[in-house]
Design a protein that fits this description.
Number of strands: 9
Strand order of the largest sheet: 7-1-2-6-3-5-4-8-9
Shape: globular
Number of helices: 6
Structural class: alpha/beta
CATH class: Alpha Beta
Helix content: 25-40%
Strand content: 15-25%
Length: 191
């Protein structure tokens, strides 16, 4: 998928305006919105009927995007990130800034992922970081097609970007403890 397609440009423009879109990610379809707008993040929580205490994964377009969230990386952590990124691994990192409490929900940490597909990283460079939970209301099966996503969210989502059927496992979720990657959720990438 070219990052310069009209549909991709349309999605990027809407996301920059704070709209919620359904996008294919490197794992599943995501219910995506700008991580920069607290109102957009709250709308994603509402649409997904997600537990308000549960933080979401944030997709980034490049490693330096972590600085936007006041995430400080030591040498060991950078080495681990370079081993898994870009890829299907989401990494929980400390995020103590009160400014991002609407994202970390008082947990003082956030999970980030630098996805593999080049087109998606280019999109993220245009939009900035996006929250991207799986495309389903809490407790229901993630949408595998845009038709299923539309059944869940109808016109409450500004745009749907179709990439055929996406199924399988979500990203693998890890946390770095004592300089080692500890799996918190098994997913697509085997560690």
């Amino acid at each position: 998928m070219s990052c310069f397609s009209e549909q991709t440009k349309r999605a990027a423009d809407l996301l920059k305006e704070g709209k919620v879109c359904v996008l294919p990610t490197d794992t599943l379809y995501g219910l995506c919105g700008s991580a920069a707008f607290s109102e957009t993040v709250e709308k994603v929580y509402q649409l997904k009927r997600r537990d308000l205490k549960k933080p979401m994964i944030v997709l980034i377009g490049r490693l330096k995007d972590l600085k936007l969230f006041a995430v400080k990386l030591n040498r060991e952590t950078k080495k681990i990130l370079k081993k898994f990124w870009p890829g299907e691994v989401s990494v929980i990192l400390p995020c103590y800034s009160e400014r991002f409490s609407y994202l970390h929900r008082g947990m003082n940490s956030l999970a980030f992922r630098l996805p593999g597909p080049t087109w998606l990283r280019k999109l993220l460079k245009k939009t900035g970081p996006l929250v991207a939970p799986s495309c389903n209301p809490e407790g229901l099966r993630p949408a595998q097609t845009i038709a299923e996503a539309r059944q869940y969210f109808k016109d409450d989502v500004a745009f749907y970007l179709d990439k055929g059927t996406l199924s399988g496992l979500p990203s693998t979720l890890i946390e770095i403890e004592n300089g080692k990657a500890v799996v918190k959720r098994k997913g697509r990438f085997q560690i």
